[in-house]
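Changelog-adjacent note: as of this version, every example in the card shows the full chain rather than a window. The one below runs 572 residues end to end.
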Amino acid sequence: MQQRSKFMQRTSALALAAVLALGMGVQAAGPDASTADDRREDLTVFYETLKDSHPNLFANTPEETFLARMAELTDQLGTASDVEFLFGLQSLAAFAGDSHTSVQVADSVVDQLNAYPMVLSWRDGHWYLTAVPAEERDLLGAEVTAIGGRSMAEVVEAFGRVLSADNPVKLRRQYRQVCNVADYYAYLGLAEAGEPLDLTLADGKTVSIAPMPYRSLGEAEIVQLGAEVPQPATAHQKRNYCALPLSGQVYYIQYNVCQEDPALPMEDFAAQVQADLEAGGYRRVLVDLRNNGGGSDGVIWPLLSVLRQEMDDGTQVVGLIGEATFSSAIINAVELQEMGIPLVGEAASGSVDHFGSVSGFSLPNSGIQIGVSSKYIDLGTLLDADAGRGVESLEPDIAVPQTMADTLAGRDTAVEWLLSHPETLEQREYPDAPLTRGRFVGLLYDAAGSPASAAEADFQDLLGIEWFLPAVNWAAETGVTGGTAEGAFAAARHLTWQEAAVFLVRAAETLGMEPETVRTAALPDALAEGAWNRTALELAWGWGLLPEDAGSTAKITRAQGAAMADALEALL
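Full-length structure tokens:
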């Protein structure tokens, strides 16, 4: 325990209270919902407004389940405390399975809450005590495996009944932010109201932590783990964005919020980054989104343009994501992947596709603030990088979780790993994901030897940052593709078998090939039916460029696309 002592700091616990308040979205006090009639009106307004405002409130839970829970809450309106009424509303919002649709905590309710003077933190797959009462300082750093006789996985799952989350990572993060609120444990049947919370440690011991009024946390004597540890150069800065060199070879950019800094507009920051990169001769650039909880996804675009130019000049760019990466920052992270940039770190709490664009309203009597999503953001309709994914946590291409040992040593695990691995990193493969038009043209371009093109393609729907952009330029210049009937390229649209055949035949012709017929079997009915370019289908089939199972699957996979490109390359 003496070894741990240097990582402990005595605190008034005001910081602990502040973290909790921020995590729960505390709002200013409003009128009290003191009667059953007031609460009934609030409940009705809450439900009807969610239905009217949310693009698909019942996407994850049938309406009948909502209504059954509404009936339960209605029966309790005259007996429930303000805290229980609030939690009841949160349980309804949780049914949406939408991290952005949530019920915030009114200040008047905070006065009624009780809390355990502790904090649990997640590191490398485990839960640790990182703040405890001063008299329990020996517990600092201890791994917690169960609470109230239930495994930590079961505890987090139980909190999912009242916390809004659309993926397990977000739920875990939400739990971490309210893990010391005693009233939640009582409401969920995980502990007795007013009684100590029993924690089971990894060594088999059980310890108990008594609750106290939430407002009294500021008077408690609490110790924290790691408070005196020196911070790494990449520690979270209280700026929207900033940059610094980490070595003569590595340049580091921290992007913390998707919002312009009035003192340093993004265009000026991007120009500064460009000047640094041109002067420094850096081999690798790190773009850190691990502390970014969102905002406006378009703010970063001047920086992406600079990075695209640097990549064209041979600079490696790597993105960093973590649990706090959320909302618009997820969009930006997937845009990095669209550029061909690998992501390193930990799974994000934000989902790839997700409900978002939050609007808010207040309940008429309690004044409780509600956030509700106004649209569904389907990145798969815009970005090839999203193909095959959906409402799921954004995973890094290379997982490098922050460890507790490194946290206590003041080291950034992911950045240290990157500094020790200078080799070119690859994105994770998703072979079963649907093949898009953009990716297939990119594969054909690589198969053709990546020939230079003289002009840029005039497709207005291209973003200008795509990894396959040179391929599209080549394909447009050589006639491999003329785009869609609408004059767009539709890079993220799933490729059809007929489009694949047309692209293959045109690419072969562009490359001056005269392939021999190697397959005499008739064109499969699945390909022939409804064909708009039967000639291209028959040629690609006869040349052996289409796989034997062509047409048997509704969607072409990335693996099948790679095989077709390999077949074309084999003819060269």
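Structural remarks: The chain is about 35% helix and 15% strand.
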